[in-house]
Predict the 3D structure of the following.
Amino acid sequence: MTEKTLRKGNEALAEGAIRAGARFFAGYPITPQNEVPEYMSAYMADAGGAFVQAESEVAAINMVYGAAATGTRSMTSSSSPGISLKQEGITYLASADLPCLIVNVMRGGPGLGSIGGAQGDYFQATRGGGNGDYRVIVLAPNSVEELGNFPKLGFELAEKYRMPCMILADGILGQMMESMAFHFDPIDPRALGKLDWAVDIEKNGRPKRKVFSYKGDNLIADVTERAKRYGLIEKTETRWEERDCEDCDVLLVAYGLSSRACLEAIQKAKEEGLKVGLFRPITLWPFPAQRLAKLATRAKAVLAVEQSLGQMVQDVKLAINGQTPVYLNAYPAGGQPDGNSILTAVKSCLNGGKEGLFDLQEHAEGFAYECKRDLSLGVQGDCKGGK
Amino acid sequence: MYQGIRIAGFGGQGVVSAGILLAQAGVEDKKNASWLPSYGPEMRGGTANCSVVVTDGEVYTPIVSAPDSVIVMNEPSLPKFEPLIKKGGLLILNSSLINSRPTRQDIDVVCVPCNDIAKELGMDRIANLVALGAFIKKTGAVSLQSVANAMKKVYKRAKPEMLELNQKALQAGFDFVK
């Protein structure tokens, strides 16, 4: 079991999910996660489960909604624009207190974007892309090995707290091959016993069990009651990894693939005598704020490295609450960090330079924008205009 | 040992497949390895490339932006990848199909007539393995035996005689480099 094999990220994830007891998968094709449904279509039936290629992403998440209500370990996967389509289903799953696994193999955005890896969906994943007061547990793997092993963790957390759990990966992690091992024996979900809330018929004098998304007239009580679970999760379920964090001048904060480029930067920094550490959140919600805040007090600067215009950095700032300066090294829309570019930003943190540091307002310095109207083109609403 | 490698050529020359083989060989050697195909609007007949990392330690990012070694199998890949190579790095050049020569003086260049050697062995398609053999001789990143073991896993449906031919191509590339 611990022997390492070479696997593609998406396939490791799909195999890991089946091993973790997933027995229902519904999805709709989108690059760069197509190997997930492909793998499921080949192996899910053998495991005794059901694979459905749905007619759309919206249909897929609603199939998961139905399957999850039966207590079956259910999942869907997609990539950024497809995950956007699933948001309505996700908020309904949250309101019905149903566990499920949602995988987002992120690509560049907004809109159709690009098919390369990116990290532009942090806000959507952690803030709830759907409506209403709800949370989704978000796990951020940074290797093929974690992609293969996180489905088990995801299902367990989702079931423990009766809520959706998301694995937030990206196109590079999904497409790359890497040596990996599964750290658990395959789970037979039939041996797990039924969940005491799953829909069921009337049996032995027990009334039939139902699952509702709308529970009646006391929404305030429902939402505040559910929030207790959210609070408990924030207290007990944060996960993270530390590298050279105890004694560093610049503390890097990065999740997913970006964190691996940071390891290269740490190595290069060491060669130049600089003390750089890495704090890698593994749960993005709950964000490991407390531990990060503690570590940040010992550093001169904190540098968030992410493949977006700056999304996770907001959680970093909330956690650190002004104790230590927080900077951003940004690679939006499919840009990829490497050790050298991160090291440049690290040096800027230390010497007050600007190279490699991204600040939205500085970025717009000297930039003026004006909405242009031209009467000679015609007037608004005039279909005859623009001849 | 940390080897970041880029292998580039036309689609169909087996550059992506040679990369998987190299990564699998790394795993056979109990090393850590990663493989990543290139993204972009590449199409049939266009250029293809992949990144491979083989290391005793942990693989940092699988995107090899400054490779220790580059294998170029066709003309258009040379100007694209020559500038990326680390100072003192290695360039394996398929001299059967590439007439230009690199301009950099700070890298180690090995010209291997991969297609000619492959044709002599009876099959043009195995030029990728000739190049891989040369790479292994120069770097020792993985062993010849581990590539042989890896072939059985990567080319699961290959006939025994095909595996044998692959093996010969690998050896020929290995032996070509003195």
Q: What stands out?
A: The mean pLDDT of chain A is 95.
